[in-house]
Each structure stands twice: as C-alpha cells, then as structure tokens.
C-alpha cells in the first residue's frame, strides 16, 4: 500500500557515527511528513558512538538501537511482515556501507520496498567520485548545496549513470540565533577535527598557536571545541587527541577545552576558526565571523581547499594581528549557507532555509505515491565492477539467513572490551610503533 494512502509515514534511520546520526535524524524530519520520531539504528563498528555522544547531538530523546547490518535488514523485513513496514529509510553511512545495504535491501525482495535516501554529512572534499558511485542506486542522493548538486550530477552523467536521484537541499542542522556581538564578550572558538590535521607535529603546532594567541590576547576567551573525549571514537580515527597533547603545555587561564553541542557553543562565539570543519558552515549560516586556517597549506588532504574563493582563508599570524575575514557572498550562496538573510546584489542571502528542503520533500512524496517502486539499480554491479564490488559486500557480511546471535551480558562485556582495546591501539600503541619505525 503506498504511504500516500495512509496518514502516517514510517521512517527508519541507519547511521554509523554520532554526526551521521544527527544528519540522518534531522534529514528524516525535513524531507518527510512523518510526525513520529524516526526509528533509529546505529551500526555496530569501530566508530559506534557512546550514549553521551548520541545525547550530545540533541536530535532525539530516544536512543537509537545498536545493530549489525544483518540485524538492521532483519528489522526492515520483520517490520513489513507485521504490517508496519518502513516507508522511507535514510542511510547515514559511508559510501561502501551504503552500497552493501542497498544490496541487502534488494535481496530482501520486499513486497513494497522503502524509499531510500542518502547523502553527505558535510563538506565533500575527498573521494568524490568513488563515494558518489557507491551511493548510486538510492532513490534520493541529497546534495547540500547548488555547488554539490552540480558536481554530483556531473559524476553520474560522466559515467553514464542516471542522475535523477540527485536533489539539491542543504545541511539539515543549520540554524540557530543570528550572530549578535555582546559588550564585554570576546570569544574565539577553534573547531577541532579528529583527523585534520593528522600528524602529531601538525596537531601540536595548531595547539601551540592557539595557546600563543590566548597569551597575546589575555582579554579574549580561547576555546578549543572537541568532538569526543578520550576513549570515544568519531567517524574518523583520532590518533593524537588534543586533550593529551595539551598536557605537555602550560596554557593560560583564558584557554579552555570544551565539549557540548556545537550550536550552543556558537551562541557565544565571536570568531570561529577551523581547518575545514563543517562547523564553519554552521557558523557562516548564523553570520558568525569565521576563519579557515592556511598555516599548514591549502591542500586537498586538509579539506580547506573547499574554501578557496570564500574570502575566509587566514593564518594565525593574521589572526594574531586582529584580522576578521569577510565572506564572499556569491560563494556563500553557492554553498547553501546564510540563507534567509538580506539579499545582496551578488546573490547572497535572501533565500529561505526551510525552502531548501522543498525539492527533496516533493521527490520523496512523489515516490511514496507510486503504486510500486522500481528495482534498486546501483551503478556498481558484478558487471561494471567485478574486481571491486565483491570485496565491499564481503566485508559487510549482510546475510540475513544466518542464525541471529543471542545477546547476553557476557557478549556485551566482550564487545565493549574489544572496542576499548581497539581504541587503545589506535590512540596509544599505533603512535608508539610509528615513532619507533622512524628511528
């Protein structure tokens, strides 16, 4: 039965990290008419977020269920068997996992499959072609800006794949109170990233410059905003946490490490500095002054090349002297940020942020109204990628016919111990081995 003939639209979100859970849950609300909370699933793996990380996203009061890929597929199958099948499934996952789940959903051969939506949680600065082709086959591939939509369609059309699935939207977590300076407040926030920069030397450099900036400006509060606490993981591995590097230094009283919801941190920010964090787009949308660091170069590996033309590139030397970059309005408009502000002659602002999701909402509604959805037809198949696809599918082991493992207290303890050992290896053992190898 098409969802359009029912009052309720049932939505499931499968994510593999805290940031993707945030993106997926908010996307589900913005592109569907569902009034109930989406059913949440978090994929069990190396980046499985903790309860604290999930709560800190602030997107739901209901904790998503931790599952394997096969368990998720069983949940989809069983929900339909109960007459409560999902109408929409949002896949907030890395590209390879999206492709594996697409295969798993196709193999279920459901009487009526759900509309499948996927996309990206932020700035797309690496593996553009591979990531997009792995996502091909979803009914809707969301682009976070006009710039991204053009790039996505060019990739699909360039390999002879259909590009109708690409729909321009926006990042679903933009918003918040527009920036307003306060008398007596001067706060610089550095938005840290787990793997940018990646080396110990580069991360230590950034930390030393932040501390030096705090000493140079004793009346300014300098906050290092961190994504995770030691022992927790995010989408990207963090071998050299700033929390550990700062122990070797002696920061002044006006320098602090902070956690929490980025939106709440931005409420008290007067200058947001980062290498290439998506937090820059959140800040720009609220018109918070923003700077993109160039100290380590403007390089693809850092992701800050995405901001070429933005007017935001700056070095610590320039920030120390008081520079506050002014964003280019045309660049902002193409990135889908600062919508809703006053229109400018160059095309910045003036748009509705809520309106940014109209096309995606209409596309999903049109698909839900169809008597039947077409078969899932990804670009990567046994014919187009016989030396690549089998390895991707094998790594995910999405066999719903295999016996479902019994959950027990012992199994949970062993799983958490193994996860802790992995994180210890990444953050403590691996750096030591790497240093020994350099001797």
Question: Can you walk through the features of this model?
Answer:
By secondary structure, the protein is α/β, with parallel strands linked by helices. The chain has 15 helices and 13 strands. Strand 1 (11-15), helix 1 (18-31) and strand 2 form a beta-alpha-beta unit.
Q: Brief description of this entry?
A:
The protein is α/β, with parallel strands linked by helices and 439 residues long. Helix content is 37%, strand content 12%. The relative contact order is 0.13.
Give the helices and strands, then pairings:
Blueprint: E1 11-15, H1 18-31, E2 39-43, H2 51-57, E3 65-67, H3 69-81, E4 88-92, H4 95-108, E5 115-118, H5 128-135, E6 140-143, H6 146-158, E7 166-168, E8 187-191, H7 200-216, E9 221-225, H8 242-245, E10 255-258, H9 262-266, E11 271-274, H10 279-285, E12 290-293, E13 313-314, H11 316-320, H12 329-335, H13 358-369, H14 389-396, H15 409-437
Parallel strand pairs: 1-2, 1-4, 2-3, 4-5, 5-6, 6-7, 8-9, 8-11, 9-10, 11-12, 12-13
Helix pairs in contact: 3-4, 4-5
Task: Provide keyphrases for this structure.
single chain, seven-stranded parallel beta sheet, six-stranded parallel beta sheet, 13 strands
Strand order of the largest sheet: 3-2-1-4-5-6-7
Multimeric organization: single chain
Global geometry: globular
* Beta-strand proportion: 5-15%
State the share of residues found in helices, binned by percent: 25-40%
Which regions are unreliable across 5 or more consecutive residues at pLDDT < 50?
A: 340-350, 434-439
**Average pLDDT metric:** 88
Instruction: Tell me the series of helices and strands, N- to C-terminal.
Output: EHEHEHEHEHEHEEHEHEHEHEEHHHHH
For the biggest sheet, the summary is: 7 strands, parallel
């Amino acid at each position: 039965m098409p969802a359009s003939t029912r009052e309720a639209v049932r939505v499931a979100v499968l994510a593999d990290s805290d940031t993707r859970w945030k993106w997926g849950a908010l996307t589900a609300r913005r592109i569907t008419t569902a009034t109930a909370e989406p059913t949440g699933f978090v994929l069990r793996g190396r980046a499985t977020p903790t309860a604290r990380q999930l709560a800190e996203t602030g997107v739901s009061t209901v904790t998503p269920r931790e599952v394997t890929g096969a368990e998720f597929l069983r949940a989809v199958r069983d929900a339909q068997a109960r007459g409560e099948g999902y109408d929409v499934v949002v896949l907030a996952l890395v590209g390879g996992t999206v492709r594996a789940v697409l295969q798993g959903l196709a193999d279920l051969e459901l009487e009526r499959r759900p509309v499948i939506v996927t996309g990206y949680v932020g700035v797309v600065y690496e593996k553009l072609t591979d990531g997009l082709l792995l996502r091909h086959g979803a009914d809707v591939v969301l682009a976070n800006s006009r710039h991204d939509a053009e790039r996505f369609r060019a990739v699909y059309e360039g390999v002879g794949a259909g590009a109708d699935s690409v729909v321009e939207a926006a990042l679903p977590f933009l918003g918040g109170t527009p920036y307003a300076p306060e008398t007596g407040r001067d706060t610089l926030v550095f938005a840290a990233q787990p793997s940018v920069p990646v080396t110990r030397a580069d991360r230590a450099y950034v930390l030393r410059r932040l501390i030096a900036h705090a000493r140079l400006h004793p009346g300014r509060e300098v906050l290092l905003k961190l994504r995770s606490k030691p022992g927790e993981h995010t989408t990207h591995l963090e071998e050299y946490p700033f929390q550990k590097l700062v122990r070797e230094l002696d920061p002044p009283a006006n320098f602090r490490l902070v956690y929490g919801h980025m939106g709440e941190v931005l409420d008290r920010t007067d200058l947001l500095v980062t290498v290439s964090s998506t937090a820059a787009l959140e800040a720009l949308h609220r018109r918070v002054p923003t700077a993109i660091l160039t100290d380590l170069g403007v390089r693809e590996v850092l992701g800050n090349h995405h901001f070429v033309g933005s007017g935001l590139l700056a070095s610590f030397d320039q920030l120390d002297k008081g520079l506050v970059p002014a964003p280019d309005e045309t660049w902002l408009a193409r990135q889908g940020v600062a919508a809703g502000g006053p229109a400018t002659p160059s095309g910045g602002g003036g748009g509705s942020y809520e309106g940014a999701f109209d096309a995606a909402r209409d596309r999903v509604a049109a698909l839900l109204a169809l008597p039947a959805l077409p078969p899932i037809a990804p670009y990567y198949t046994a014919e187009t990628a016989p030396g690549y696809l089998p390895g991707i599918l094998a790594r995910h082991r999405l066999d719903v016919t295999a016996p479902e493992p019994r959950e027990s207290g012992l199994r949970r303890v062993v799983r958490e111990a193994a996860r802790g050992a992995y994180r210890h290896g990444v953050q403590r053992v691996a750096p030591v081995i790497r240093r020994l190898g350099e001797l």
